[in-house]
């Protein structure tokens, strides 16, 4: 029996974890998973020791508020895995949480994998030393990460992103609109305000305000928003009542992919949603706000070393998706950018061509490659243990 410890902290990690678990089980039927996971990982049989929502915190200041609880959970997980050593431990993203856990387990002789490279190539590059201390293997999603990590002697395997494999190269917008009850002729804008409550609280009013701004100029426009949980939906609905109670908006429980597919253009928070929007070939506008102190620290210390915050723009190496950050993230600026896409079919066609090429390049059977790399690590570590004995 193969025992795998696995911890994901948010929705995007839950998706990656579920894909990896499925691929591992295809290669090894005698496998048990336990750790922390969301809905998708639970469906794949993960025994979640802690509700994933308790770990879904982002931002320097925001993390500080929850630090005692996060540290307590990490100690709980470490003690569990030290008392019940798995054959391998896999931390998915969330480096500030997972790397410390991985280091403690690695020091105890448990092979460790970190799935999703920390953005050391973009900011806080000094973390690369911590990665080397914490992991036996890093699974990288994007090709531009690998060279940097290899230069710093991090054991890395480029596996690609499972979303590129899951999402078809072409999508049927008319079919999805029909399924959702959306008019085929009306412009449709998908609004994706994020999966964390902090994002909903910081972005929703501005995103809803942008929708209201557009509606005043294009009354036939319709809007659709996918929401990841009942709590997030309730918070978003409250913002609609406050900002634009008459807004013609369809709210979905999950179904982010359907919302994006149905849309002509997407307004999204920065995060995995920008990658999914790219893979579905939709033009997008990216907005983001964070705690003012978090933003001030980042700017003051010049922590960010890349020209874009959206993964879609980093992959394209071009600002195809306009980004509006902090004070620039206003209803009028977001709305104006969205309207420009609705009025520029030639520009949209060029963006779709660029996104199609990126999608083709990223298709690598990533979950299978990741699973193979994990099993190879387990075998390698077992041989080393026998040699030491």
Specify the helix fraction band.
40-55%
Strand content: 15-25%
Cα Rg:
21 Å
| CATH architecture assignment of the largest domain | 3-Layer(aba) Sandwich
Q: Give the CATH class of the largest domain.
A: Alpha Beta
The CATH homologous superfamily of the largest domain: Glycogen Phosphorylase B
CATH topology of the largest domain: Rossmann fold
DSSP helix count? 17
Shape: elongated
Give the averaged pLDDT, no decimals: 90
Mind summarizing the main beta sheet? 7 strands, parallel
What is the ordering of alpha helices and beta strands? EHEHEHEHEHEHEHHEHEHEHEHEHHEHHH
- Multimeric organization: single chain
Distance between the termini: 22 Å
**Could you give the order of strands across the largest sheet?**
3-2-1-4-5-6-7
What does the model show?
With 389 residues, the chain is α/β, with parallel strands linked by helices. It folds into two domains: 2-160 and 364-384, Glycogen Phosphorylase B (Rossmann fold, 3-Layer(aba) Sandwich); 167-362, 3-Layer(aba) Sandwich (Rossmann fold), CATH 3.40.50. Helices cover 53% and strands 15% of the residues. The protein contains 17 helices and 13 strands. It has helices spanning 11-27, 39-43, 60-83, 95-107, 127-134, 143-151, 162-166, 173-180, 197-217, 230-243, 256-262, 272-279, 292-300, 311-316, 331-342, 345-362, 366-388, and strands at 2-8, 31-36, 47-48, 88-92, 112-115, 137-140, 156-158, 188-192, 222-227, 249-253, 265-269, 284-288, 323-325. It has a seven-stranded parallel β-sheet, with helices on both faces. α2 links the parallel β2 and β3. The protein is elongated, with a radius of gyration of 21 Å.
């Amino acid at each position: 029996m193969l025992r795998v410890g696995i911890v994901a902290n948010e929705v995007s990690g839950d998706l990656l974890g579920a894909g990896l678990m499925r691929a591992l089980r295809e290669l090894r039927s005698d496998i048990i998973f336990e750790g922390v996971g969301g809905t998708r990982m639970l469906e794949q049989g993960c025994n979640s020791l802690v509700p994933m929502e308790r770990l879904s915190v982002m931002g320097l200041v925001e993390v500080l508020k929850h630090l005692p609880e996060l540290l307590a959970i990490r100690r709980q997980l470490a003690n569990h895995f030290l008392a019940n050593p798995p054959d391998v431990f896999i931390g998915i993203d969330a480096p500030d949480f997972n790397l410390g856990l991985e280091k403690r387990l690695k020091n105890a002789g448990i092979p460790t994998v970190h799935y999703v490279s920390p953005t050391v190539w973009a900011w806080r590059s000094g973390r690369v030393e911590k990665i080397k201390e914490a992991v036996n293997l890093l699974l990288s999603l994007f090709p531009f990460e690998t060279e940097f990590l290899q230069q710093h002697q991090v054991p890395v395997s480029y596996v690609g992103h499972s979303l590129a494999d899951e999402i078809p190269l072409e999508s049927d917008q008319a079919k999805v609109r029909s399924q959702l009850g959306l008019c085929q002729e009306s412009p449709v804008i998908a609004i994706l305000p994020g999966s964390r409550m902090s994002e909903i609280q910081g972005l929703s009013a501005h995103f809803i305000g942008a929708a209201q701004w557009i509606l005043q100029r294009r009354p036939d426009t319709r809007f659709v928003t996918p929401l990841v949980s009942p709590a997030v939906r309730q918070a978003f609905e409250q913002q609609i009542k406050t900002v634009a109670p008459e807004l013609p908006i369809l709210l979905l429980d999950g179904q982010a992919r359907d919302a994006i597919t149905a849309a002509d253009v997407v307004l999204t928070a920065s995060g995995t949603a920008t990658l999914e929007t790219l893979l579905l070939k939709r033009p997008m506008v990216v907005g983001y706000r964070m705690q003012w102190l978090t933003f001030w620290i980042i700017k003051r210390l010049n922590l960010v070393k890349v020209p874009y915050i959206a993964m879609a723009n980093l992959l394209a190496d071009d600002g195809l998706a306009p980004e509006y950050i902090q004070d620039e993230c206003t209803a009028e600026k977001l709305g104006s950018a969205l309207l420009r896409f609705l009025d520029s079919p030639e520009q949209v066609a060029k963006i779709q061509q660029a996104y199609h090429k990126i999608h083709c390049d990223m298709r690598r059977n990533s979950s299978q490659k990741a699973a193979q790399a994990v099993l190879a690590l387990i075998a390698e570590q077992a041989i080393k243990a026998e040699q030491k004995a």
